Amino acid sequence: MPPWHPGHSPMTHANAPRGLRLHIGLFGRRNVGKSSLLNALTRQQVAIVSAQAGTTTDPVEKPMELLPLGPVVFIDTAGLDDDSALGDQRVAKTRQAFERTDLALLVTDGAWGPYEQGIAAAMAERQTPVIVVRSKADLPAPEVALPPDLPVVAVSAQTGDGLNALRHALVDHAPADVISQPDILGDLVGPGNLAVLVVPIDKEAPKGRLILPQVQAIRDLLDNDAFCLVVKERELAAALDQLKSPPKLVVTDSQVFLKVAADTPPEVPLTSFSILFSRFKGDLLSQTLGALAIDTLRPGDRVLIAEACTHHPIAEDIGRVKIPRWLTQYVGGALEFTTVAGHEYPEDLSPYKLVVHCGGCTFNRKAMLNRILQARQAGVPLTNYGLTIAYSLGLFERALRPFPGVYEAYRAHRGEGRG
């Protein structure tokens, strides 16, 4: 297999979750060759190609393996100059893709004007690196000055010229924190040490398998040469009694925080999967401080509950039932809750007093960080499912102690830091 072969590698990252993949967005006007470029890079007919402008409607996502970057997702988008009857909706979908893009390919057939400048500016706001791709390099093009401050690669999807240079540019400009994924919990446990994972098996647990954060946590521990013991909440106390020495960390599903906290000795560090994913996918410190806004909530305030994935809610759904119940009990009066899922997310967050977001296991980190940034720009605190549950149930400080830096920053913010 050639070193730049982009095909799936069944022994490595072929089944890597989308949230762990580098998201590469293709943006530009209609008919500049975005879909042809995607097909050439993947060596597959991923996107429909036509001479008719506006062929691509909704974003097309193609997970693949691109060595040496590893697992990536290419996002082919509709042109931002779409003035058709459905153009506004297509452009809105394209702009949503801005938020989950780690690295942008700004495709132009030689033109450079307001559309291209607007894309470059939007990416600069999000601190997203941009590579300008001069497409259709085998054809004559108008002499237009492309921006000197952005890398430019000339490519022909028809002849293949420039594709290797583009792949090298992808490696050179991919964000370092995406290429080098942080640990979920392996660094908190360490080689040769034990973590106990508490995994309830209830109506929300998929039959025959575990949910994604639990699977990823187990794999992360194995990658870090740590030991892993997986139990249900009812077996935790008995499992701890059988250990010769206490575990380095206990991690629980947030929904059984109270029982697990009662059964875990106070000297044993305890946190939740959701809080681990706040650190892994988002910004644990800002979401920790965001949770303090729970104390400012008053009956009648509006709270946005945001989930990264879409699923059919059950009777005791965590986002639609349990968190609203716990927050209402904590506040002592009815709150107004709005729930959104997937990529649907309000552009205007100002009506809300608080945003409570899931751990984002199906998102890439860029998408979560952009939501945190959007909330900060709107002046609306944003926190996380696990942090909200721990705060509402009086377990907040205990859940933060496994993260000394965040815990000390939180205490300093509360005026309890070391004097």
Automatic annotation (TrEMBL):
Domain G: 24-135
Domain named Hydrogen maturase F dimerization: residues: 184-282
GO molecular function: GTP binding
Domain Hydrogen maturase F tetramerization as annotated: residue spans: 290-402
A Pfam family: HydF_dimer
Domain of life: Bacteria
Gene Ontology CC terms: cytoplasm
GO biological process: tRNA methylation; tRNA wobble uridine modification
Descriptive protein name: Thiophene and furan oxidation protein ThdF
Organism placement in taxonomy: Bacteria, Pseudomonadati, Pseudomonadota, Alphaproteobacteria, Rhodospirillales
